[in-house]
Amino acid sequence: MTASPDSLAIAGNSPFPILDLRMLPPPERHARIFHLLGMLDGGETLTLINDHDPLPLHRQLEWVQPGVFSWEYLAEGPDVWQVRIGRRESAGCNCTCGSH
């Protein structure tokens, strides 16, 4: 994944970015997340930090791209939630269709 930190609002210098959603206006959050997830290669992850359970995002992600991403809670509130989302290794083509 290659991107400029100023355009992505990511924290740290990790090759697997951490996005602190608390710093973004709510209307921008899902679009930013989906943009970053679209840049991940198989096996790469994105860690989200949020002030509430991002379960609605998980449901949206599974509806739009079923089976493409893994979802692992690293912290579950009550004040801070952290989730690691990873793009699963492709099972054939290198697409995001979710049918593999």
From TrEMBL:
InterPro entries: DUF2249 (IPR018720). Pfam families: DUF2249. It comes from the Bacteria. Residues 19-87 form the DUF2249 domain. This is Uncharacterized protein (DUF2249 family). The lineage of its organism: Bacteria, Pseudomonadati, Pseudomonadota, Alphaproteobacteria, Hyphomicrobiales.
